[in-house]
Amino acid sequence: MVHWTTTAMTPKAQLEPGRPAAAQLRDRSGLATAGRIVVKVGSSSLTTVAGGISERALVSLVQVLAERRLQGTEVILVSSGAIAAGLAPLGLARRPKDLATQQAAASVGQGLLMARYSQAFAAHGVTVSQVLLTAEDLTRRTQHVNAHRALERLLHLGVVPIVNENDTVATHEIRFGDNDRLAALVAHLVKAEALVLLSDVDALYDGPPQHGAQRISHVAGPADLAGVTIGTAGKAGLGTGGMATKVEAAAIAADTGIPALVTSAANAAAALAGADVGTWFSVNGARRPVRLLWLAHLADIRGTLTLDDGAVKAVRERHKSLLPAGITAVSGNFEAGDAVELADLNGVVVARGLVNYAAAELPQMLGHGTKELARALGPEYEREVVHVDDLVLL
User: Fold this and answer.
1) Average pLDDT over residues 223-231
2) In the chain, fewer beta carbons within 10 Å around the N or the C end?
3) What confidence tier does 87 reach under pLDDT thresholds 50, 70, 90?
4) ∠ CA(64), CA(68), CA(70), 5° rounding?
């Protein structure tokens, strides 16, 4: 479910929308003139070690983003920090590990975080809105269309949408896992010209920075990261993924048509001005629908369907839906609508898709045509196992 709240519009914030997001940035210098950008900031950049919101850090970031919005750029901010902001009010010393307490902390902290953002942006005459998303909002067509329409309207009105995962209702099975991945999906949802991922580390390095490692200025593809050890969440435990998830999110964006920059919140102004900071991930693939992006990289895979050679060819080469006649085996415990892998007879995964049947239903269907199944089991069994629109090749 998508949740929207918007602060009162101030006259100064009613700006003309930025130019349509169509241009492809060749390098980081293009950020200086980009018309639509998604900026993600992590918990470690916004909160104190004790868990409260760092007023100085938040105000500093808001000043950079508000100035850019007032110059005409459409800005979407994906902000972590809700759970971290809720720790101190709940008397918690560190980020909880169990989902229920995380949800409680998020419920308390999200309101505090938005109140600070609203106040800080209002000082510049900029209106903000709260957008809480779950994975289903970007993968179910009806909700996806609604989220896209609402965000487009907010941007047209000159608003800065502040996006976060809806931690209060998200479950382990359907959550993004961290806001870096969410930011990559949001960038595709709004067709942003670039994704900027901010944390407390100024760039990706080829080793531990404290040991004299060198900054990796540009990543053109996976080969540039071969042999590079990438860190995870910091010792404070306020974030969820560290550099590893930022690199993953940047690579996902770049592989599917959106360039990305990974740098520190302290470098935000320089980064948006196109300066030579951080690590730039240049585009090396074509854009794809956000649902398929999620399915290819982020979906929780619940089972595997093994295909015969004919079905593999139909799916990979002829871009057809998967029918029960081409399936030789089923493994896993899944329900209709879950994500599954499609593998060949050697176990090589060739695609992922959203299955239309539960695991318990499929064994009786294997090797049979859809018309035959409709006659034997009922008309509801005449549909595909995985429709081509819900399938992505790997």
Assistant:
1) 81
2) N
3) confident
4) 120
